[in-house]
Amino acid sequence: MKGPLFYSKILLFGEYGIIKDSKGLSIPYNFFNGALKTEENPSQEAIESNESLKRFVSYIKDIKAELVIFDIEKLTNDVEAGMYFDSSIPQGYGVGSSGALVAAIYDKYAHDKITVLENLTREKLLKLKMIFSEMESFFHGKSSGLDPLNSYLSIPILINSQDNIEATGIPAQQTDGKGAVFLLDSGIIGETAPMVRIFMENMKQEGFRSMLKDQFIKHTDACVDDFLKGDVKSLFKNTKQLSKVVLNHFKPMIPQQFHELWRKGIETNEYYLKLCGSGGGGYILGFTEDFDTAKQSLKDYKLEVVYNF
Q1: Rounded Cα–Cα distance for residues 195 and 199 (Å)
Q2: What is the pLDDT of residues 67-101, one digit of tens each?
Q3: Cβ–Cβ under 8 Å, residues 10 and 27
Q4: 243 vs 241: CA distance, rounded Å
Q5: pTM of the entire structure?
Q6: For residue 279, how far is the Cα from the chain centroid?
Q7: What distances in angstroms separate CA 197 from CA 62, 139, 144, 193, 194, one per listed residue?
């Protein structure tokens, strides 16, 4: 048995900000994917995934019926029979490993599910986001539900505010373009929950709150608008400002050994780095107007191109 594939995602803009109603833009990233599977001779990884699914099943049994109803009997039987989530999506890398699993479970076991084939009104998108938020909270403590939403629908999602989201189109890539959005592998596994705790702690300080509103959210919103309009010149100007704000105010989320690299990008304008997801490790997102130059500057690191300008 093998279920349909669910892909990883990248939140291009909006990490942390969307908790406080900034805009956000999330795109599917088809490089990694996962599917529900059962097989005769499971590997050690499959056994561990199955154990984790058992815990997840007892958690989703308690989700309120007015939100979503699952075929718990079928799900329980399948998990007892050894079903696991076979995934190439790295965990703790900010590309939505738990989101893809949540999407796969909803797709297969939810009654009256909302599908990508119907007219996706704002109400339906919000309903899905609420269901996914509730489901994914099992993994992160508190989840926006956006990762599973992106993985489930496999289309770019524009977040205008917490209760205003829409499916969107993004400008076509310039395959021969010099500019790029890329992922830089930090080689460190990040954990979402501790990073979100640091953020919530910082939110208690008035200075941090006003920085978030006047700088972080302002530049994030501008980046989303620029990206969707295809205004590359303005996008890089705003991404540089965003990269600076993150370096100055989100230091705990940037692994220590990348502080210098981050600063160097801002000073040389060869690339600008930003958080991919909650930070603390995993991937770091990079933006550059000239990928060859950036690649030279970052030759000690593994880079993956996500989008070409």
Answers
A1: 6
A2: 999 999 999 999 999 999 999 999 889 888 999 99
A3: yes
A4: 5
A5: 0.90
A6: 11
A7: 25, 14, 15, 6, 5
